[in-house]
């Protein structure tokens, strides 16, 4: 009987721990869903590309959180795209304290041991012209994300056996790819989704510095415009998260001096304080009602202890008029942030009024028969028009609920 009660007590404690752990790791789950590879279709077989570890990285100290080698997936270009390169930086949130990072280093977000050995290349990474009209035959590389600070940290925590080497991973990967032919590139595009979208902003001018003036170099940030916004409780959830990331991982020394000369390092991890000073042509693709930011920055459970936002944060159709008004304020803040950036002729914009996150790698949102559009132009064609200077692209959608082409994310 005593053993039975001990067992019941253990189960109760375990259940509470699991519930707490699910809450703690919810962002990871949501991010994985948001960065899905697109809709499943019967008979659809995407190109699967293998993982390449960067064997020279270890000697440079360019390692994942757990000390394993970083890696990327590369599909060679051919024909007219043989000397063109697209680098896609993987997303996946951040880790802002030792506990988070210790958990993360036992996942694909912190260790190449746990990374998928094959991943599907869809959307902007697809090899099919009908799915990816402008970049299908380029060298397409997906750089895996295993540092937890958008490829910017350079520090360590010996006690927890954590390596924060995102900045070194970035340079080791670029050096490796340059040695494999990227140094001869005629055209290049640095892209990224979510935390990788932030990284593409942070490293855009670094990427440009690798090439001569004869190479066309541009950058694309997908769902990387994270705002320093007030949450539903009046606090600043994301600023607190970023402060932990920047402090723990030694990010400050990797941030652009043009920003840190007049703002604190945490502020300089926010793209709103960086985009106007990026010299390289940059395209910002973002949902005006970014699903990740709603769930994890604006209305996370920590800012909503009574659960007033619980249904709304998972499904926009269940938001009250007051909540929609709050989200319209977030959209207005985003439009204000990009106003100066958009005045530059070299930059591009696609801000659609969707509840979405990461739209370049998903085939259904990048380029398909029913893709989201602004003025009848899907994302893939907007990016292509901007990259190849076929047209100026400064597309900003009307506010919700006017756009019926969105592929809005709904969570259970």
Automatic annotation (TrEMBL):
<dbReference type="GO" id="GO:0009505">
    <property type="term" value="C:plant-type cell wall"/>
</dbReference>
<keyword id="KW-0134">Cell wall</keyword>
<comment type="function">
    <text>Hydrolyzes acetyl esters in homogalacturonan regions of pectin. In type I primary cell wall, galacturonic acid residues of pectin can be acetylated at the O-2 and O-3 positions. Decreasing the degree of acetylation of pectin gels in vitro alters their physical properties.</text>
</comment>
<keyword id="KW-0732">Signal</keyword>
<keyword id="KW-0378">Hydrolase</keyword>
<comment type="similarity">
    <text>Belongs to the pectinacetylesterase family.</text>
</comment>
<keyword id="KW-0964">Secreted</keyword>
<feature type="signal peptide">
    <location>
        <begin position="1"/>
        <end position="20"/>
    </location>
</feature>
<protein>
    <recommendedName>
        <fullName>Pectin acetylesterase</fullName>
        <ecNumber>3.1.1.-</ecNumber>
    </recommendedName>
</protein>
<dbReference type="GO" id="GO:0052793">
    <property type="term" value="F:pectin acetylesterase activity"/>
</dbReference>
<keyword id="KW-0961">Cell wall biogenesis/degradation</keyword>
<dbReference type="InterPro" id="IPR004963">
    <property type="entry name" value="PAE/NOTUM"/>
</dbReference>
<dbReference type="Pfam" id="PF03283">
    <property type="entry name" value="PAE"/>
</dbReference>
<dbReference type="GO" id="GO:0071555">
    <property type="term" value="P:cell wall organization"/>
</dbReference>
